Amino acid sequence: MSSVMQEVQQQPYFSDAEKDAVYRAIHTRRDVRGQFLPDPVPDDVLARVLNAAHHAPSVGFMQPWDFVVVRSPEIKARVREAFDTAHTEAALMFEGDKREIYRGLKLEGIVEAPVNICITCDRERNGPVVVGRTHIKAMDIYSSVCAVQNLWLAARAEGLGVGWVSIFHQKALREALDIPLDIIPVAYLCIGYVSHFYRKPELEAAGWLARQPIESLLHFDRWQGPADDDAAATLVDAARATQAEIADAKL
């Protein structure tokens, strides 16, 4: 057994420094679009990030994900073309000022990022009956999304930026990457070193939307549960204070 695994088994708690590092990765993670550098991502770094994704939780331990690693300029160009088509269509779905803001946003870094990764979901892996998916069939897709989040946080810890591109017709993305029809493309990610990370998410900074106050998202015991008892009020106050600390922190 490796020393790392022995340490995990012997020490179930994180030190304060370790906890700070985890929360820093969470709170400074950004959806990167325009800050990619041309520097290549070393294979050992990319391998660690991919293994972090592969160690995500999955329903019934089915591990439904696959990873299509894209470095070819020709393949990137095909994916970028699929994005351009959908992006033009999407702009027409917004009205007034929103349409102009949308057109001014940079929403992908497909060509600029040295590595692109498509994370997929194989819904038939390990057979039709999966522990935990017997009644909520989408649990396998949710599992693949957990792999996306693991990859994203590991990449941030490695100093890598990640941008999730979702403005595609799935058929066009399948064709660009030659993905079989029974495999679901879940996330197309642009990955690479960056010049900087923005302090706030770009859409928040651009005034597209503001971050929701955490207290408006908390419910107690049921959806319309009261938040005016002492226990609920204490948690609301703590959550509000923590959100303010995050907003003010020099991360």
Task: Give the helices and strands, then pairings.
Elements: H1 3-10, H2 16-28, H3 43-54, E1 65-70, H4 73-91, H5 96-104, E2 115-122, H6 139-157, E3 160-165, H7 170-177, E4 183-193, H8 202-205, H9 230-248
Helix pairs in contact: 2-6, 3-6, 4-7
Give an account of the 3D structure.
This protein has 251 residues and is of the alpha+beta class. A four-stranded antiparallel β-sheet has the order 1-2-4-3, sandwiched between helices. It has two domains: 183 residues, NADH Oxidase (3-Layer(aba) Sandwich), CATH 3.40.109.10; 40 residues, no CATH class. It has nine helices and four strands; from the N terminus they run αααβααβαβαβαα. It is 44% helix and 12% strand. The longest helix is centred in the N-terminal third of the chain and has 19 residues. α3 packs antiparallel against α6 and α4 packs antiparallel against α7. The mean pLDDT is 93.
Specify the biggest β-sheet. 4 strands, antiparallel
Q: Strand order of the main beta sheet, please? A: 1-2-4-3
Helical stretch tally? 9
How many domains comprise the coordinates? 2
Terminal-residue CA separation? 36 Å
CATH superfamily of the largest domain: NADH Oxidase
Primary descriptors:
4-stranded antiparallel beta sheet, NADH Oxidase, alpha+beta, 9 helices, 4 strands, globular, 251 residues
Can you give me a brief rundown of this structure?
The chain is an alpha+beta fold. It has two domains: 28-210, NADH Oxidase; 212-251, no CATH class.
